[in-house]
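Problem 12. The chain below contains 196 residues. Write out its predicted structure in C-alpha cell notation.
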Amino acid sequence: MNLPNKLTISRFIFTIAFLAVMFSQGPYHQTIALALFIAGGISDFLDGYIARRHKLITNFGILMDPLADKIMVCSAFIAFVGLNLMPAWMVVIVVARELAITGLRLLAVSKQVVLAAEGYGKHKTISQIVAIISILIGVSYQQWGEIGKAIFGAKLFGAPWLHWLTEMAIWAAVALTFISGWLYLWRNRALYLDDM
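Solution.
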C-alpha cells in the first residue's frame, strides 16, 4: 500500500478518534477533537498532493479518498447536531447533498462515465472545513487560558467576534453545499434522466 492510500485510511482513524473524543467528557476533549480534525484535514491535503506529484494514483485512492472526506465532514456535522451546536436541518442538507452526489458518481461509473470534480465542489469543501474548525475553536478556546480568550473572545456587537465568523461560515457552507449539489445534479441530469 502506497503512502497516499495510507493517509486516506488514516482519515478514517482520525474520524473515529474525533467522534470518540468529541463525545467524551475528558479534560480538554474539545481541544483534542479540534487537533484530530485538523490532522485529518492535513492528511487529506497530503494524500492528494503526494499522489499527483509522484504519480501514485490508484483505483483505491480514487474511490476511497472522496469517501473518507465525506465521512469525516458528515461525521463532524452530525456530531454537532447531537451536541446542540448546529441545527439539524442544515446538516440534513449537507448529508443529503453528499449522498446524492455519491449516488450519481456510482451511476456514472456503471455507465463508464467519469465525472470530474468541479470548482464549486472544491469551494464547498473548503467552506465546510472552515465552518467545522470555527465551531470547534468556539467550543474549545476558553480551555486555552487567557491567550485563547484574548484572541477569540474579544467582543463585537455584544458577542465574541468568533461567534459572528462561525455564523457566517456555517451559512456559507450550507449555501455552497446546496448550490454545488444542485448544479452538479443539473449539469449531469442526462445520466439519471435516461433511466427514469
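Discussion. The helical segments are 3-22, 29-53, 59-82, 88-110, 119-140, 145-152, 161-187, 189-193. Students who got a different answer should revisit the alignment rule from Section 12.3.
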